[in-house]
Amino acid sequence: MSAVDLDRVRELEARSRTLHPQLALRRDLLAAVDDHVQEWLERLPGLPGYGPDGQPAVDALQDAPITEQPRPLGEVLEIVGRGVDHVGVNESSGSFFGYIPGSGLYFGALADYHAAVVNRYAGVYYAAPGAVRLGRACIEWLAGVLGYPTDCGGDITSGGSIANLSALVTARDACDLRSDGFAESVIYLSSQTHHAVDKAIRIAGLGDAQRRLVPLDDRHRMRADALARLVDEDRRSGLRPFLVVASAGATDTGAVDPLDAIADVCEQRSLWFHVDAAYGGAFALTADGARRLRGIARSDSVVVDPHKGFFLPFGTGVVLVKDRAHMAQAFAGTASYLEDAMASEPDVVTSPAELSPELTRPFRALRWWLSLQLAGVDAFRAALEEKLLLARHAHDRIGALDGFEVGPRPDLSVFTFRHVANGDPDATNRALIDAIHADGRIYVSATVLDNRYTPRFAVLNCRTHLAEVDRAVDVIAELAGRVTASVQDR
Ligand SMILES: *Cc1c(COP(=O)(O)O)cnc(C)c1O
Q1: Is the beta carbon of 413 within 6 A of some atom in ligand 1?
Q2: What is the pLDDT of residue 284?
Q3: Ligand 1 atom showing the smallest separation from residue 193 Cα
Q4: Contact 91 CB / ligand 1 (< 6 Å)
Q5: Are 359 and 301 a contacting pair, CB within 8 Å?
Q6: Which atom of ligand 1 is nearest to the CA of 162?
Q7: Is 276 in the pocket of ligand 1 (CB under 6 A)?
Q8: Would the CB of 317 count as within 6 Å of ligand 1?
Q9: What share of the chain is helix, strand, coil (3-state, %, to 5)?
């Protein structure tokens, strides 16, 4: 065996040491990144809600192939600025009213920087008791807001999709479903259920389960009486109803299903009651939202997306499961090399890895906790009530525009509208949305509702205030006038 060539080791060390820059350089790098984002933030109010041209991304990345040699930060930031920061939809803009708006709360970004540098191993209590307790504090705070017991199971996930998946896997195992029974088991949802739930059902292996679309009332809410009837019919025909998925803030219409009435049906018939409140859950902080969400505390599991209603940077979802033992059973896992690591203090705090498919994970909780600490809960409560009122104000104003009809007054902060002045409303509304996207000052998206192409207006960005909403309505009115004129010219 020949000795290791230590000269080679020293030479490699000289080359690899650049991976950890020293203090003066670290400060310079951080200042340069900070300059870049502060300039972007200062320009943000004037930036368009949408940059429809994707070509700058192609060009910028062509100019920056990944090579063996380092590239100066200034050059890299220029590439990102040109190819990323202004391309596509701008969810951070107060003039963004599409889909469910994001925000990118600044406090959360600060936490991400800290969390990434310190890099605590947040999935395992033994490895990072502080990080795990901090995450648990966020979960218990949310449990309190929703009326869940503070000893519930909970996990901070990457988003609502994975949170729904965790809930469904927990429900599947808690109801003791085995693969030979999947085909007889029945899941109840509605045409307004988010497609992430359908995806989760299939990933959970339940693709062969029966799915019933429960009829809706005229405001696109699940009808509890129809649900009860469907469940009873299915039972009589020998099937095994086990899971009801309600929406608390449907993405298309913002409609909140009647959670209390659905909870009655589930309790009487021993069904697992899951609420997808990815969008709407945060509104429980407001008096009006809490009233609309009444019954949410009676669910067995619930999903909330803090990267929606708590305005955090993307990558933050939560699932709560009322009975923590069910979650622990669904996600139990052991490995001999983790023997010490997984031995949590009993009944104190469960390691996130024991309540989740993930082992290693980013320390997501810090962005939520730090934001709640630095802003205080009152700022979130005020912002959420503001969004509820702004959505109603926009609904009133668009409803009063010539040639427009609006969907129901919003349960939360999303509503639909249609421009109906011309012959073919589908074509007119497509033309209107195209015009809004080409114009770029604001962003609005559309859905298909009852087979009709339907624009919708969603208020949830933390930078959206009265001036942004009023301007958006003015832009819609202006562009609708132009669309009408051009359709009539044809
Ligand atoms: C956004 C949303 C989801 C999906 O959550 P992601 O965070 O995008 O993965 C699921 N359900 C509802 C109701 C949503 O609004």
Answers
A1: no
A2: 98
A3: 13
A4: no
A5: no
A6: 9
A7: yes
A8: yes
A9: 50, 15, 35
Residue type, 222: M
**Are 275 and 303 within 8 A, CB to CB?**
yes
Q: Which of 279, 413, 460 to mutate to test the pocket of ligand 1 (most atoms within 8 A of CB)?
A: 279
Give SS3 for 457.
Answer: strand
281-321 residue pLDDT tens: 999 999 999 999 999 999 999 999 999 999 999 999 999 99
CB atoms within 10 A of CB 309: 29
Neighbour tally for 259: CB within 10 Å? 26
Element (H, E) at 447: strand 445-449
- Give 155-182 pLDDT, tens digit per residue: 999 999 999 999 999 999 999 999 899 9
Could you tell me the two tokens for 214? 């429960």
Ligand 1 nearest atom to the CA of residue 317, by list position:
7
Q: Distance, CA 287 to ligand 1 centroid (Å)?
A: 23
Of 157, 221, 276, which is best to mutate to test ligand 1, by the most ligand atoms within 8 angstroms of its C-beta? 276
Q: Would you say the CB of residue 101 lies under 6 angstroms from ligand 1? A: no
CA–CA separation, 458 vs 96, rounded Å? 8
Q: Residue 325's Cα: distance from chain center in Å?
A: 26
Contact, 248 vs 280, CB < 8 A? Answer: yes
Mean pLDDT, residues 475-489 taken together: 85
Beta strands in 114-251 (DSSP E): 153-157, 185-189, 210-213, 240-247
Q: Is the pLDDT of residue 402 over 90?
A: yes
pLDDT at position 48: 86
Q: Which two tokens stand for residue 250?
A: 């449907």
State what percent of residues in the chain have pLDDT above 90: 91
d(CA 95, CA 294): 31
Give me the half-sphere count of Cα atoms (radius 13 Å) on the Cβ side of residue 327: 27
Q: Provide mean pLDDT across the span 70-78.
A: 97
With a 6 A CB cut-off, is 305 part of the ligand 1 pocket?
Answer: yes
Q: Reply yes or no on whether the pLDDT at 340 is more than 80.
A: no
**Does residue 149 surpass a pLDDT of 90?**
yes
354-392 burial: b if 16+ Cβ within 10 Å, else e: bbbebbebbbbbbbbbbbbeebeeeebbebbbbbbbbbe
Question: Which atom of ligand 1 is closest in space to residue 307's alpha carbon?
Answer: 7
- Does residue 439 have a pLDDT over 60? yes
Distance 196 CA to ligand 1 centre (A): 7
Is the CB of 278 within 6 Å of ligand 1? yes
Task: In whole angstroms, give the CA distance from residue 157 to residue 154.
Answer: 9
Q: Which pLDDT does position 489 carry in this prediction? A: 61
159 CA from centroid of ligand 1 (Å): 7
Q: Whose CA is nearest to atom 6 of ligand 1?
A: 160
Name the band, by pLDDT with cuts 50, 70 and 90, for residue 486.
Answer: confident
Task: Quote the tokens at residue 337.
Answer: 């090399």
